[in-house]
Amino acid sequence: MELAREPTSVAEPEVETAHAEQFINELRRVTEALPDRINIDAEGLEQGLAKLVLTLIELIRRLLEKQAIRRLEAGDLSNEQVENLGLALMKLEQKMQELKGQFGLSDEDLNLDLGPVGRLI
Amino acid sequence: MRLYLYCLSDELNADELNACAIQSVAGIAEAVPRMVDLGAIKAVVSDVQIQQVIVTKDNVLAHERVIDFVMAQTTPLPFRFGSVVTAAELQTYVASNEDRLLALLDRVRGAVEMSVKIIWDRDAVRSQRAETRSEGHLIGDHLIEGHLINAEGAGPGARFLLAKRQEIMGERDLKSRADEIASWLDEGLRGLVREKVIILNPADALVVSAAHLVERGRVAEYRERVNSLGRHRNDLRFLTSGAWPPYSFTRLRS
Predict the structure, then answer these.
(1) Are A75 and B145 inside 8 Å of each other by CB?
(2) Of A11, A26, A72, the CB nearest to B243
(3) Between A87 and which of A6, B156, B157, B217 could a Cys-Cys bridge form, CB atoms 3.0 to 4.6 Å apart?
(4) Which of B136, B13, B53, B30 lies closest to B44, judged by CA?
(5) What's the CATH code, domain B112-249?
(6) Nearest neighbour of A3 by CB, restricted to B68, B73, B110
């Protein structure tokens, strides 16, 4: 089999932009947001598990909010139901804020980067 | 002894490659890369004593250096950084995936990966969209008809839901604008791109990350076309890069 000989000039990667600093900052931010490996010490493990569990709860909470808005937009809720649903979701959001505070987590910590799929939330 | 994997190809000749310049290209831990003949497919590898290769600047550059050497001659299927296996594992992997690997090699043959990243001013986009919506529309006639007259007259629960609705509408607007940008880029590069992988992140400043599979002979034309498109959009910031190995179109795992 012969070694394929194709043009070699394109093999030299080039980067072109008039806004290098902005792209570097943005790419650095994205890279730093990638999930770290879980550290297997008592404190690190607890923090890692809390992050995982709260991420799942946050995802479900946001889905509930979207579902509530869809029902609201469909106009099939009474005033009382709207009020009750809103209060329940408001309390859930407040509770999540408390839990995030207790574990020292921010909104960004719960927004996992799933690589090619994009961000979780 | 284990093997560090760089890439696979069906167009390299083992004798010729091992005998020539690849031996002057330092691989991971300065090891000399070599080719393993696995029948229709050849693997470019180097020997390592460890099971896991640490991410360091030197190691990443060594990985890219070897793949770039192969890229100068043909388009391989690149392994992701850090793929370490035994010789038997490599043989089993290639044998059990041969048809799929050959199809992937056909898919990327004669092409390279080019990348376009686009940054937008998300806050400006968001406020432009908010201005185009009237207050009445924000509350939503169909939403409140027969139930709530306005947000001020509603209880805290209903006001919370209305505020959430505005937030969600804002997210939908951003998604729609991001889709528009992706479609515009697509249209602008029509005829130049063999395949594409687009990642949209409307919530981020880096809104579009596009990978394009482009014929080797059309890379200069591609760059010029992207530059030309960029000149027409002062609201967006562009970064073009490549040619890269076709990582986005192969996704090999060891």
Answers:
(1) yes
(2) A11
(3) B157
(4) B13
(5) 3.30.70
(6) B73
User: Omega into B243 within 30° of 0, i.e. cis?
Assistant: yes
The pLDDT tens digits for B39-90 are 999 999 999 988 888 889 999 999 999 999 899 889 999 999 999 999 999 9
Bridge partners, B241 (sequence order): A15, B115
* CA–CA separation, A71 and A93 (whole Å): 19
Which residues of chain B make contact with A68, given a CB cutoff of 8 A? 161, 164
Q: Which has the closest alpha carbon to B124: B182, B173, B183, B186?
A: B173
Task: From B3, B85, B2, B5, select the one nearest B250 (Cα to Cα).
Answer: B5
Separation of alpha carbons B200 and B188, rounded Å: 17
pLDDT tens-digit series, residues B90-133: 999 999 999 999 999 999 999 999 999 999 988 888 777 666 65
CB B119 within 8 A of CB A19: yes
Write out the DSSP string of B203-247.
TSSEEEEEEEEEEGGGHHHHHHHHHHHHHT-TTEEEEEEEEE--G
State whether B161 and A8 contact (CB < 8 Å).
no
Other residues' Cβ atoms within 10 Å of the Cβ of residue B221:
13
pTM: 0.78
DSSP character string of B79-92:
BPTT-EE-HHHHHH
Of A111-120, B123-132, B175-184, the one with minimum mean pLDDT is A111-120
pLDDT(A7) > 90: no
